[in-house]
Amino acid sequence: MALPRKVASANYMSENRALFACPVCGDEMTVTEDCSVACDNRHSFDIAKQGYVNFMTHAATSMYGKDLFEARKLVIESGLYAPMHTAICDLLKQMNTNVAVLDTGCGEGSHLASIKNKFQEQSDTSFVGVGIDIAKEGIIAAGRHYTDMIWCVGDLAKSPYQQESFNAILNILSPANYTEFKRLLKPNGLVIKVVPQSGYLQELRALFFAESEKESYSNELIVERFKENFLEVEVKRITQTIEINKELVPLLMHMTPMGWHQKSDVAATNLTEITIDLDILIGKM
Ligand SMILES: C[S@@+](CC[C@H](N)C(=O)[O-])C[C@H]1O[C@@H](n2cnc3c(N)ncnc32)[C@H](O)[C@@H]1O
Ligand SMILES: [Zn+2]
């Protein structure tokens, strides 16, 4: 019989316990028999039945809820982001080593799960995937759907990981914390940040934004900040327009917390294709 999810997660976390540091005191952590992750100073965090751990040390509100994460999961599973997953997987394979990868602001975990699957199909080296997000609803969904990964509710500003633990840090369409990224990265590691480019979801924006400044988008400032933080920076642009099913349109509308300024009826749209246009920023220290 398969182990209960919580016990299987506890075993996996225990195998990888060297990655953890207490978010309260910074000490090493172990996984206890009653399925919590704890330090010697009695700071203890329970593993939930869906297999994730909540490491939050303060209350936080999130504008990201269950519906938004369900929509993101279905959109990601539709294959819209497959070229991005392939590009990131290729970067990780080029490291030619066993990798520990942290996805910061991982949401409901589908990007990391896809990247790990691709990697394992194509490489003989091992892949330990860890996802952190401040939004509990995202991590609950990640824990429920994707096993053999470490899912943590936590704030990047107080992350529960040991310094120099990860070969790569992913930061996909999420806020960055460069001080923390540099602390967590192993020597020769990569920070891989994905930001929208001007054509990202342009068909939707044209339909649903009235003539506002949001119709056009520039990532210039974010790219500048990234470049200030790393010695070596490479930028890869991924642009692709794909055909979509009509059912995907309301989901695309739903996957952003900003909500779109609606000037058309979602159900009435005849959108048949959608563009992803992303910059992948690759930084080395
Ligand atoms: C636009 S969503 C992107 C989620 C996912 N990477 C994706 O592309 O589907 C941004 C995510 O960043 C998370 N986030 C924001 N601030 C954070 C913080 N301080 N620590 C951890 N996660 C954070 C949010 O909760 C949210 O899930
Ligand atoms: Zn502690």
TrEMBL record:
Residues 97-204 form the Methyltransferase domain. Gene3D superfamilies: Vaccinia Virus protein VP39. The keyword S-adenosyl-L-methionine applies. Residues 20-56 form the 23S rRNA (guanine(745)-N(1))-methyltransferase N-terminal domain. It comes from the Bacteria. It comes from Viridibacillus arenosi FSL R5-213. Transmembrane segments: none annotated. One of its GO terms (molecular function) is metal ion binding. S-adenosyl-L-methionine binds at Y81, E108, G109, Y200. The lineage of its organism: Bacteria, Bacillati, Bacillota, Bacilli, Bacillales. Keywords: Metal-binding, S-adenosyl-L-methionine, Zinc. Zn(2+) binds at C22, C25, C39, H43. PANTHER family: METHYLTRANSFERASE, METHYLTRANSFERASE TYPE 11 DOMAIN-CONTAINING PROTEIN. This is Uncharacterized protein.
